[in-house]
Amino acid sequence: MKTKEFFGKFLSAYLWLNLLAMALVVVALCFGVKYGLELYTRHGKDVTVPKLVNMTSKDAFMVVEQNKLGLVITDSGFNKRLPAGSILTQLPAPGAKVKPGHIIYVTVNSPSSPTFAIPDVIDNSSYREAEAKLRAMGFRLLPPKRIVGERDWVYGIMSRGRRVSTGERVSIETPLTLLIGNGQYGNEEEINYTEPEQYYPDEDMDEEDEPDEFEEVEQTPVEQPQEEDEGEVVE
Question: What's the pTM?
Answer without folding.
Answer: 0.46
